Structures are given as structure tokens and as C-alpha cells.
């Protein structure tokens, strides 16, 4: 079992997984049931058609109640760049002690500071190659398809290759 098999996915990560599955539907078999909070599926950031496609691969996690949410968020200084829905992702991860898949560096650093494992979709692809679920050549095809969709999942820009992915660190 990989760290991301039971991780909480943020909205951007759900969009990236949806893009991958649109281009590579045969990978549905290797995508775990992703844990999400309801707010990720109804937020302004997720198109209804994306939510409809991706929700079949999701398990909804109940976010903390208003009291717990306020308590968790009052005890931390999160970056102002973190969206409201990602603040709920943060609080849910802390409350439920879940790993998180996110592309947001500020959110990732805040989650790491709480001693939780955090990663991004690039790290998941790397794990799939290292565990021989997909080949490095197949991974490069996926990366190229993501680039065509303007999704650069490896920090540093243009080099979205297996070599870049192998050395990728996040956050």
C-alpha cells in the first residue's frame, strides 16, 4: 500500500487525475479510491462535468464540524494564498490524520509542519514507475499529455521528463 492510497486529495489534484484518466482510461485500474471532502466536489474550482467523472473514484470524508474546524484553524497561521476549500482540506487532514495530495506548496508545507505525509501527482507517477505498475516510457507519455493540457506537475517548468520526475521533490 502506497502513502497516497488513503490520502486526501485537493481540488487541483483531482483535476490532474481526471486529466490523466481522460487521456489514459486504462489507468483507472491503478487509481485508488481517492478520499475527498465534499467541498472539493462542489467548489467553484471544479467543473460539474469533471466532478461527475471523478466522483466515481472518490470516497467522501466528512470534514470537521464548525467548532473543530475553527479550533484547528485558530491554532495555525496558514498562508493567505491558501484557498478557503484548501483550509478545509488542511483541517480535515489534521483532524483525521490523513496524508494529502496537493499541488499547493503553501498547503503542503503547512501539512508537513503537522507531521503528516504530503505529496503531489508527480510523486504518485514516480511511485507507479518505481513500483513497476507503469513503465518510465508510459510515464513520459502521461507527462507529455499533461503538458499538452497545460498541467505542469513537476516544479521547474519545461522539463517534464522521467529524469526530471525521478529527482522531483515536493514541497
Write up what this structure looks like.
- It is a single chain.
- The chain has 171 residues and is mainly alpha-helical.
- The protein folds into two domains: 3-119, 5'-nuclease (Rossmann fold, 3-Layer(aba) Sandwich), CATH 3.40.50; 125-166, no CATH class.
- Helices cover 49% and strands 8% of the residues.
- It contains nine helices and five strands; from the N terminus they run E-H-E-H-H-E-H-H-E-H-E-H-H-H.
- The protein has helices spanning 11-23, 38-42, 48-54, 66-74, 84-96, 105-113, 121-130, 136-148, 162-166; strands at 8-9, 34-37, 58-61, 100-101, 118-119.
- Strand 4 (100-101), helix 6 and strand 5 form a beta-alpha-beta unit.
- The longest helix has 13 residues, at 11-23.
Task: State the secondary-structure class.
Answer: mainly alpha
Q: Determine the CATH topology of the largest domain.
A: Rossmann fold
CATH hierarchy class name of the largest domain: Alpha Beta
Point out poorly predicted stretches: none
| Helix-strand topology string | EHEHHEHHEHEHHH
Keywords:
171 residues; mainly alpha; Rossmann fold; 2 domains; three-stranded parallel beta sheet; two-stranded parallel sheet; 9 helices
